């Protein structure tokens, strides 16, 4: 079931401090060969290894022009509750550093059936839209970008957007200046063939989904992406590994993957630990999952045939997995 990625080594060729909390990294192959092709909305898994043997693995959206595969660019925000990856990128990675990347995957592509694309970004959530704007440039599709951030100094890549070809299609919303994004008004005025896309903090994503639903916008017209581990709240439950018969208790605050790794009862590959790469997908033999991943489609989640062990939990008191 695991989704197999090509992994390859890259050099960091440029590092730019875009805001006090966001850095832009330019990555290229050492031999000068082109990077794998990608489309706007794609992400890569970045694997980092410290001199002390520490290892981190995070998903980041590609923000550069898909037409130029000489290099990739990613934007990384230094997270307050960092699992280590964003802190490593900010504190340890510099020009000349080597990183390992996965081939790109896209769970957030522009829908070709949309008559208008309405892009809503919050903070670092601007990054996938920067690649998509390259695809929209000069095309037949109508589009608009709404970009919200906390204060002027946190508007990553604002100058690039204001001075580029998308300036007339872009609106900025700055909390500290009381310039707020009115989602109700935005959703109320949408044409029936318009699609909404949102990337950013969870409260923004939740608000867009809820406001769109209240406005009668069909679910299939609302697209979202967030790279963050799902909350591991909820009651403890039992996981049975069918091949060995091992029973594990997954406590509140722990993921199934962590419980398996702690017990060493089975080996599970997982690149992202954020529910986006698909490598830890595992078949469900008994019980039902509470899905928190972004990898499976709604139909696949409803089918209860498999789950992502890094973020999803049990809806039932007991889960039996094909491990």
Automatic annotation (TrEMBL):
Q: Which UniProt keywords apply?
A: 2Fe-2S, Dioxygenase, Flavoprotein, FMN, Iron, Iron-sulfur, Metal-binding, NAD, NADP, Oxidoreductase
Q: Which domain of life is it from?
A: Bacteria
Among InterPro entries, the record links this protein to:
2Fe-2S_ferredoxin-like_sf, 2Fe-2S_ferredoxin-type, 2Fe2S_fd_BS, Benzoxazolinone_Detox_Enz, Beta-grasp_dom_sf, Carnitine_monoox_B, FAD-bd_FR_type, FNR_nucleotide-bd
Biological process terms from the Gene Ontology for this record are: carnitine metabolic process
Q: Which residues bind [2Fe-2S] cluster?
A: 272, 277, 280, 310
Reaction(s) catalyzed by this protein? (R)-carnitine + NADPH + O2 + H(+) = (3R)-3-hydroxy-4-oxobutanoate + trimethylamine + NADP(+) + H2O; (R)-carnitine + NADH + O2 + H(+) = (3R)-3-hydroxy-4-oxobutanoate + trimethylamine + NAD(+) + H2O
Q: What range(s) does the FAD-binding FR-type domain occupy?
A: 5-111
Keyword NADP attributed: yes
Which pathway is recorded for this entry? Answer: Amine and polyamine metabolism; carnitine metabolism
User: In the UniProt record, does the keyword NADP occur?
Assistant: yes
Domain 2Fe-2S ferredoxin-type intervals = 237-323
Cofactor binding note: Binds 1 2Fe-2S cluster.
Q: Which GO terms describe its molecular function?
A: 2 iron, 2 sulfur cluster binding; dioxygenase activity; metal ion binding; oxidoreductase activity, acting on paired donors, with incorporation or reduction of molecular oxygen, NAD(P)H as one donor, and incorporation of one atom of oxygen
Reported cofactor(s): FMN; [2Fe-2S] cluster
Stored PROSITE patterns: 2FE2S_FER_1 (PS00197), 2FE2S_FER_2 (PS51085), FAD_FR (PS51384)
EC annotation from Swiss-Prot or TrEMBL: 1.14.13.239
Q: How does it assemble?
A: Composed of an oxygenase subunit and a reductase subunit.
Query: What is the role of the protein in this entry?
Result: Converts carnitine to trimethylamine and malic semialdehyde.
Q: Which family does it belong to?
A: Belongs to the PDR/VanB family. CntB subfamily.
Q: What is this protein called?
A: Carnitine monooxygenase reductase subunit
Organism, scientific name:
Pseudomonas wadenswilerensis
